[in-house]
Amino acid sequence: MDSSHKDKSMTPVSHTANVHTVSNTKKGLFLSFLLTGIFFGIELIVGLKINSVAVIADAAHNFSAAAGVGIALLAIIFASKPPNSKRTFGFVKAEIFSAWINGIILFVMAYVIIRMGVNNLLNPGVVATTPMLILAVIGLIIGGIPAVMLYKKQKTDINVRGAFWHVMETVIGSAVVLLAALLIRYAGWMQADAILGMLLAPVLIVATWGIVKTATYALLDFTPKNLDLVEVKKEIEGIEGVEVARHIHAWTIGINKDMFSAHVKISDNADAQEILEKTTIKIKEKYNIYLSTIQIEKRSLYSEEAKEIEFN
């Protein structure tokens, strides 16, 4: 007996209100993506021209912000595309793949920042502070506008919340560029550019590692971090009438979209429909499973040829 269960609470109460909200969110995210993306290109070109590590490091943060906002925007766009017989889950996994690509590029940018910083410390040169000051002020404005636009929505939408904190990176990065420019201009500390710029690299690496690791696990269909399958197995086998739970799998198809499947062998006198409902509701409510498929069996169909890892 097969059954799939999807939480009905995910269905919007008002379709018109939902469409209006999504439309406004898309407009806000698109403007944020456009502003941050353009500024990233300008900052990268100017940073390379004036040989400023701090500016290039900030450009990397702006790239991260633009990519983060872009991924959030793609998630909304792709989520609106209906599934079909060839793509039964639509394009929900595209956002994970995009995040993985984003993370790899950021790793490369962090390496470039560190290499430039070391080179500038060994061979210090003159850094033009006027372009740095101008870029820093523009960056604070460009980062501030999307932050204000997304602030309210990020309180209730986890996808937009990620984009919001990516945008906040641009504000912090611009503040670092401003500080470096002021230290060079008024304190004569020429190494401030390289040192402050390189200080952003470890932050970038730590944040990027989390993105790449999470995306890689999802792409390889690893068990979601919030799920302990040994515990889940015990939970299911603790339901009255269940003899054993086998062939257990859990994976992620998209952000906040964890999947679960299992074969559940029950006793001869047990009510299959009742156990199916109890099992589905239990794992949904306790582990926030997006979609589950539970196969109820009174005679085990679990062959040795298909045997997978048993959980102790």
Please name the defining characteristics of this protein.
4-stranded mixed sheet; Alpha-lytic protease prodomain-like; 8 helices; about 300 residues; Alpha-Beta Plaits; 2 domains; alpha+beta; about 65% helix
Structure description:
The chain has about 300 residues and is of the alpha+beta class. The protein has two domains: about 15-220, Cation efflux protein transmembrane domain (Alpha-lytic protease prodomain-like), CATH 1.20.1510; about 230-295, Alpha-Beta Plaits. Helix content is about 65%, strand content about 10%. The protein contains eight helices and four strands. The chain has helices at about 15-50, 55-80, 95-120, 130-150, 160-185, 190-220, 230-235, 270-285; strands spanning about 5, 240-255, 255-265, 290-295. A four-stranded mixed β-sheet has the order 1-4-3-2. The longest helix is centred in the N-terminal third of the chain and has 36 residues, at about 15-50. The protein is elongated, with a radius of gyration of 25 Å. Mean pLDDT is about 80; it is low at about 1-20.
